[in-house]
Every structure is written in structure tokens, then in C-alpha cells.
Amino acid sequence: MYTLVISLPLLFVIFILDKKLLSLIMWDSLYFITNSFLKLNYVNIVFMFLLVIAFLVKLPIFLVHLWLPKAHVEAPVSGSIVLAGVLLKLGGYGLIRVYYKFTFIYIRVRFLFRRLSLLGIFYIGLVCCRLNDLKALVAYSSVAHIGLVIGGIFRGLVWGVNGGLLIMVSHGLRSSGLFCFVNMMYERVRSRSIYLNKGIICLIPLFSLILFLLCCANISAPPSINLISEIFILIRLNKLEILRVVLFFGGSFMGAVFTLYLFSLVNHGKIFNNTLHLLPPIHSELHALVVHLIPINVLVLKSEIFFRL
Fold first, then answer.
1. Which residue from 94, 68, 54 is spatially nearest to 179, judged by alpha carbons?
2. Residues 216, 92: Cα–Cα separation, whole Å
3. What pLDDT digit, counting tens, does each position of 223-267 carry?
4. Are 75 and 158 in contact (CB under 8 A)?
5. In angstroms, rounded to a whole number, what is the distance separating the alpha carbons of residues 139 and 99?
6. Where are the domains of the chain?
7. Which of 56, 59, 63, 197 has the fewest other C-beta atoms within 10 Å?
8. Measured at the alpha carbon of residue 147, what is the angle toward residues 145 and 152, in degrees to the nearest 5?
9. What pTM was estimated for this model as a whole?
């Protein structure tokens, strides 16, 4: 339903450009839009919004994000990994392409998207602190982190876009790793409840270490590339505006709160009888988790590859 309702307006705009210009090349449409949408009125604002709404939903942005947790929770683990690692990043790619072609349009209304993304980070952080489903918690945390991508891109500067690109890469790795971990625990315990998956540090210490490294990446702790991305976006996003500073640091704090909440409850606590027979991890499971961890902590040594814009 989200795809049907949100993608049709973008297709409608593409048809309008094709009818006016007899071409779908971006540079041809750039000249047409430059001369047609110089004034800021309601029609032009709607046109601007329709150009990016399909990409904002795929990222997703706060208020149009409710499809993501539902899709993640209902999908198999392979579907969740592809969705988090690939499909969500296509929205960011499309947003970068459209924004940089029509910057003169969005520069007048971009503050709305930036503030909405920061508000969404803080609100989703509060929502995550009351969830008890491990997979839903990881899915909602994706919405909180992607808000930084939207804020960085709509800042319109190179540092913001580079920071958003770094977050998209790191999010695809750490979110996929967390989904792998949650699925492995579900196969053993037969439940995704955070209150039943306890005492992992006593039963499977290696899983506890891997979860610790993934949680460190989720809260942008060094040496993960998340730390560099948040520093870049912080520099270009705040601009000495008190509301942005409060929302940014409040959202980052709430992200650390629910991540530590996840780590502490899963590793510590009372061990239930149904978890005493947990099997140790096999080689294929360890390989799937390690290939997520290595790029997150190694790419920081070659971070200049992300700063070519």
C-alpha cells in the first residue's frame, strides 16, 4: 500500500516532465524546472515534495516509516538482510541524485525535512525503549539512524552528504549483523522476546562478544565508521541552532539507551529452563556475523574512499 500510494506521485511527475520536454534526461529537466519554479508558492512546494517523497519513504523518514518494522518482523532473515543492506540504500541514492540536480528548489524548504528527521530520531528512540521484540527493536533503530542521513543530505553540503553516505554503508552492515544475531537466537529459543533471551554470556560467550561489537557500532563507538559519519553530520547539521543541538544529542543519547538496554538484558539476567540446551554457534553462523563486523571496524582505516564528492 505504501509503494502504491507514494510511488504514483513520482511517476506522475516523471510523466509531466516527459510531456513538457519530450525527454527524461536530468539535465534537460533541470532547465525546465529552473525557469518554471522560481517562485515559492503552494503548487511549486507540492511539486518539490512529489519529487522526493518516494525516496523518503524508502529510506524511510519519520511519519512514513510504519511499513518498515512490519516488513522486517514478518520477513525471513534473508529478506530482512536484503532490505536493510540494499533496498533502503536505494532511497538514499535517489535522494542524492534528485537533490543535487534541483538544489535551488529544495534550498527553500529543506529546513522542514531536517527538523522532521531530527524529531523522528528522538521520538523513535523513545519508542525503542519500550519494545520487547528483538527484531522490532532492531528495525525501529534503523529509522532512528536513517534520520541522520536525511538531515545530512538536505544540508546540501559535501560534508553532510559524505556523512550520510558513511551512515548508509555502516547501517547496512550493522543492521544486517543484528538481524542475523536475532535470527540465530530465535532458532534456539523459539522466541524473539527480550525477556526470554537472557543469560547468553553464561551459555554462549562468543555470541555475547559479537553482540557487544555490533552494539558498539550501533552507538557509534570507535573504531567503527559510524563515529566518523556522525561527526561529519554533527559539524554540518547544527549550525549553532539550539533546537537542532538538543534534538541531535537527545536522539543520539536515546540510541545509546535502547542499545545498552538490548545488550544488558540479553546478556545478563535469570537463565530460563528453555535456554539451558542452547547449542554453540556453528562455523557458518560465525562466518555470517564476522563478515559484518570486519568492514565496520576496518573501513575506518580507508575512510578517504567515502570523501570523493
1. 68
2. 24
3. 888 888 888 877 766 565 677 778 778 888 888 888 888 888 888
4. no
5. 26
6. 58-101+110-306
7. 63
8. 105
9. 0.86
